[in-house]
Amino acid sequence: MSYRYEDEPDSWYRPEPYCAEVDQLDVVNMGQYNVQDAKTRLSELLNLVERGEDVVIAKAGKPVARLVKIIPPTKRRLGYVKGTLPDEFLEPLSEEEVLRWEAPTISSTPTP
């Protein structure tokens, strides 16, 4: 977002750095707190986040940061590949297979 009047010369045009477009509907559906409120009520805000609510922290009325609940990754069980591997899977490669493995990759894209 930048602020520029139509009659201003281009030298006056300075886009704001680090701007993020925020969907206004998202901001309305979350609690917005200014920095001072967030400092004094951090424990309360964290409780809101734990319950699944998003909290927006604003500076001078502009949303700056959003606190969201971290969802821990689920544990994956080893051996998740379906089926079984053939017995020869763990045997050493033959000479022909080693040569094919170590051969340079040929690309269909021409090189300059």
UniProtKB/TrEMBL annotation:
SUPFAM superfamilies: YefM-like. Coiled coil: none annotated. InterPro entries: Antitoxin_Phd/YefM (IPR006442), phD-YefM_TA_antitoxins (IPR051416), YefM-like_sf (IPR036165). Pfam families: PhdYeFM_antitox. It comes from the Bacteria. Belongs to the phD/YefM antitoxin family. Antitoxin component of a type II toxin-antitoxin (TA) system. This is Antitoxin. It comes from Arthrobacter horti. The lineage of its organism: Bacteria, Bacillati, Actinomycetota, Actinomycetes, Micrococcales.
